[in-house]
Amino acid sequence: MPFVLDEFLPYRLSVAATEVSRRFAARYAAEAGLSIPEWRVLAHLGHSGAASVRDITAKVSLEKSIVSRAASRLEDRGILRKSAHDGDRRLIVLELTEDGTALMARLAELAEAFQAELRHQLGADAHRFEAALKRLAG
Amino acid sequence: MPFVLDEFLPYRLSVAATEVSRRFAARYAAEAGLSIPEWRVLAHLGHSGAASVRDITAKVSLEKSIVSRAASRLEDRGILRKSAHDGDRRLIVLELTEDGTALMARLAELAEAFQAELRHQLGADAHRFEAALKRLAG
DNA sequence: ACATCATCGTTGCATCCGCAACGACATTGA
DNA sequence: TCAATGTCGTTGCGGATGCAACGATGATGT
Questions:
Q1: Which of A73, B15, B65, B104 could form a disulfide with B46 if both were Cys (CB 3.0 to 4.6 A apart)?
Q2: What's the gap in Å between the CA of A119 and the closest CA on chain B?
Q3: Which residue spans traverse the membrane (chains A, B) (predicted)?
């Protein structure tokens, strides 16, 4: 029996992830031209409030160098600000500006709507599907 | 209700895909230091026999420039050869060498074994999970 | 036949990613 | 106290990616 790439689970997973990310990026491109790392940093800060680069690195599956550069770009655009941490001056505190909070509020709506579409596309299996994803990543 | 990145389906999908690809790459790294595009080109040629860059581009979800460069690297390593197409000289025919075929045979075993592990990890939902992936990519 | 337009594969270029330094600071242990 | 070690965020650098040319070749329409 020959090996068929098209039936290979890691391949299918990668293709699906790329396609879904591409579709979502097309949605928020009009609202804000964010890269995926920038989107993840923004979304995490919107939920967590102030956080250090290290905190974000640990939570959103990105290298610290990528988080660092994404944060600098978001700072340049006025979406977040950096400040010193009291007590540990190695740390840098990142938090959203008002503009950043407003942007996140708009993107959260887009994201929820998009996710609703995906779940509709998945039908009744959606919940099991998401549980399976967590099992694979763990 | 606040937006939580960790529950966002495109994020979970991306994390799972990255993690699974990383695990699989670790398996075949010992056998052959292939990039993901190289692996896909090799796998497709193993299944399809001779094919043009364009054929592969259409089948394995990669840009034509990436397929072109991956093919050149595989050629340098003696895994595939390029030849002219009779009748349409724009096309380049790619096919595996004997070494390439032998390499693919070894990697196919690794791949099947790895996939079996993943399906075991997914349990009874494995089949529905793969069907859902196809639905998302389509 | 010939001009026009489409297609194929390659390459240049700007950008992004991943890893390994690095400087600054904190913690540890004697 | 102070040297050794660990941690934080940034940056340099090599390599990969994505897009837009480009030259070469085919197809089309008159």
A1: B104
A2: 9
A3: none
